[in-house]
Design a protein that fits this description.
It is a single chain. The chain is mostly helical and about 190 residues long. It is built from eight helices and no strands. It has helices at about 10-65, 65-75, 80-110, 115-125, 125-130, 135-140, 145-165, 175-189. It starts with 10 loop residues before the first helix and ends with a helix.
Length: about 190
Amino acid sequence: MNVPATPARGPLSNFIALGTSEIFARAAGFAATALLARRLGVDAFGILGLATATVGYLGIALLAGFGVISSREVALNPGRAEGIIADATIVRLILALCAVGVVAAFSFGFVGSPVRRLVLLLTSLSLIPFALDTSWAYRGLGRNHIIGIGLLTAQFLYLAGSFVLVRSSGVLQTVPLIQFVGEKVGAGQ
């Protein structure tokens, strides 16, 4: 990540930028969820929901305080931001790859259905852009508008991809890939 040389925005500007983007991103995410529930049907949507919840618990472990602590360190030492970002990202990426490995072992050991296994494995890929996400660094630098752009990009790509590519439960495995792409583009900011 190249840390921009532009000065941080004021607290009110940061609050408005992050708050409004959060509202619109959540609305897009809700719309995508409603659309997927309708198009996938109960069974396929349940498979997706279980995979998302399972991977979500591992995502919590990826957080492990990195965002808060690293954001504070970046705020205290903006000149060292790139080094802090690199160190934290490497650790988070290693944890994400380990989590993907845990999901793979679990899915091959305990999930009998090939469709459920594939959806779970593909959903676990979303841990990688999550690990690469540097929004916490921008928060520490007082640049919440950049975080907002990434959040909006991820959710609107997810909504657009779901709208265009998902027509029935026959393409269930496409949904985690759409989410992965949205999250990866959003994390790139």
